[in-house]
Amino acid sequence: MIAIESSDLRAVDYDWSGTLTIEFHSGGVYEYFQVPHELYSGLMRASSPGSFFWHHIRDRFSYRRIR
Question: How many other β-carbons are positioned within 10 Å of the β-carbon of residue 41?
Fold first, then answer.
C-alpha cells in the first residue's frame, strides 16, 4: 500500500489485474475490480485524491470490503 495525502483516503494499492485497494482513514479497506490503470494513475496524480475517488471510481466499479 502507498500512503497518500488525503483527508478521506489513507493508502492505495493497484495490481495489473485491475484491482484497486483503498484504505480509508475510517479504517475500512475495499477492493475495487476492473479499474483501468489510467484511473489509478489519475487518482495518484490528483490534487484531491478523495474527490477524484468519489467522482470517478466509487459506485462505478464492483467492490468488496475486505476489512
Answer: 11
Helices assigned H by DSSP within the chain: 37-45, 49-56
Handedness of CA 28, 25, 33, 13 (dihedral sign): negative
- Which 3 state secondary structure label does DSSP give 64? strand
Residue 24 to residue 42: CA distance in whole angstroms:
18
Residue 16 CB coordination number (10 Å): 6
Mean pLDDT computed over 25-47: 97
Model's pTM, two decimal places? 0.93
Q: What is the pLDDT of residue 18?
A: 97
